[in-house]
Design brief:
Low-confidence stretches: none
Helix content: 10-25%
Structural class: mainly alpha
Largest sheet: none
Number of strands: 0
Radius of gyration: 6 Å
Order of helices and strands: H
Length: 18
């Protein structure tokens, strides 16, 4: 969750939590 929210707030943890 360090990147900027590009998708929905729900994918925040899966999208860019790597």
């Amino acid at each position: 969750g360090k990147a900027k929210p590009l998708k929905k707030p729900k994918a925040d943890k899966k999208e860019y939590d790597e």
